[in-house]
Design brief:
Elements: H1 3-16, H2 26-39, H3 44-64
Keywords: Signal
Organism: Sphingomonas paeninsulae
Protein name: 17 kDa surface antigen
């Protein structure tokens, strides 16, 4: 019974110590990639990951200009 409270405490500390993410452009790319992946033989997760990566790269590229 002590395993559950200790694992919850460890998970809370792990999440609290994580740095903030910089997701510039990632959400829109993930949504569009997920929808496109869903329509190409149910690869929504792969489409979301790819869309996030490409959109994040494009946002960084336009911010550098």
């Amino acid at each position: 019974m002590r395993r559950l409270p200790l694992s919850l405490i460890a998970a809370t500390l792990f999440i609290a110590s994580a740095p903030w993410a910089d997701a510039a452009g990632c959400i829109k790319g993930a949504v569009l990639g997920g929808v496109a992946g869903h329509y190409t033989h149910h690869h929504a997760v792969a489409g979301a990951v790819g869309g996030c990566a490409v959109s994040h790269h494009m946002a960084r590229k336009s911010a550098a200009k």
